[in-house]
Amino acid sequence: MAGGYQRAPTRGGVRAGDYSGAVSDAPLHVLLISLHTSPLEQPGSGDAGGMNVYVHQLAGALVDAGHTVDMATLDRDPGAPRTAGMRASRIREGLRLLTVSLPGAAGAAKEDLPGLTGAFAEVLRAEASRPDVVHAHYWLSGAVGRELADDWRVPLVLTLHTTALGKNLRTRADEGLEPAARAEAEAELIARAEATVVNTRTEALQMVELYDADPARLTVIMPGVDLSAFSPPEPGGNRRAGPRPGSPGRPLRVLFAGRLQALKGPHVLVDALARIRADAPGVPVELEIVGVGTRRFTAGLQQQVRELGLEDAVGFGPALPAPQLAERMRRADVVAVPSSSETFGLVALEAQACGTPVLATDVDGLRTAVLDGVTGRLVADRDPASWAHALLGLGRDPEALARMGAAAARRAREHSWERTALATAEVYARVRDRVRVRHGSRWCVNTLER
């Protein structure tokens, strides 16, 4: 194959994305599309979360590897220009943010964005430089990427991060199901893309089972972690100093970091703390909730804390930049991820990089992110009683916390964004020389020249 690419091993037809080191050295121009949320937004606020971290960190690591990258996003700020246009901002050498403004986009809700994908693509088509590959993140970005890839005759790589059918498998009816139109759009994108990158083998199997994806066009690449920001505490500092959990007067310190919404499960932790206080009053537990949600959900969560009489045990804080979040993680004894569904759960890997064990729901990508009994523990369901039991077990076993924390830090060191970027660049190299381009109603295969 062109560029000396060596075929990666496959598992049951699904390609494994481990970097082989045989990818072409030719630098690429990559367009990463993140329409609904800017990669530079603070994770844990608004629609920003792990995907923002993923896109921004992937972009930086690709630039470090010698490629040039543009990240494209929609300006939804209430004060955004009301006219169609694009602003290019230089982040660093080789990396730019392309911010698209559109009539009707300022202050637009996420639910309104499907109607803006065509206009978004039109602006990029007119004002952005033609890349070697388009990599779309999330289904809304995929709708844009499909148009641009066809027009520019370049390959489309897709990373959905979360899917409608995957979420609906786990979401309770009162949490709101994803619409059928989104699932249909995702199925079309998966069928169209030259390659779809997924975080775990579990996600790949879901793609095959739920969307009838072609396993040969799926590649599993685990996300990385910013090891310069997320690292274990220095010997004698932070969590390692002072009494251990379980000592008289020393509470178990639990951290939740993420968007405040039902599917992330902060309310599950609050109920679990109430059960611990009722059933085991001699085991103190403190919960810090870091993140931002809608006014309605946040007010309901705070009311829940007051009604349960937990004001002295539960604290709230805003979403934090990586260095401050890492400091909170190092201070915690355990980071809790009680999500109903996660394609991976990047916060779990960040916590492990800080040497902090993770307690997570036994579901989907969290089964890969957390090694049960080694770097943390998985909880069978989201019943507050199950979480209370798991937290009590950790609070009474400081040796296990220390052992799992050390293992967590060792494991996280294996997952740098550099490795993720190099594996992703292999995908780009594989698809760029031969790409399907739609002409009218038929597909043909074209060989692209740089």
From TrEMBL:
Annotated InterPro entries: Glyco_trans_1, Glyco_trans_4-like_N
Pfam families: Glyco_trans_4_4, Glycos_transf_1
Region (Disordered): 229-250
Composition skew (Low complexity), residue ranges: 236-250
GO molecular function: glycosyltransferase activity
Keyword S-adenosyl-L-methionine: no
Entry keywords, A to Z: Glycosyltransferase, Transferase
Coiled coil residues, start to end: none
Segments forming domain Glycosyl transferase family: 246-410
Domain Glycosyltransferase subfamily 4-like N-terminal positions: 49-224
Record flagged with keyword Oxidoreductase: no
This protein's name: D-inositol 3-phosphate glycosyltransferase
Lineage: Bacteria, Bacillati, Actinomycetota, Actinomycetes, Micrococcales
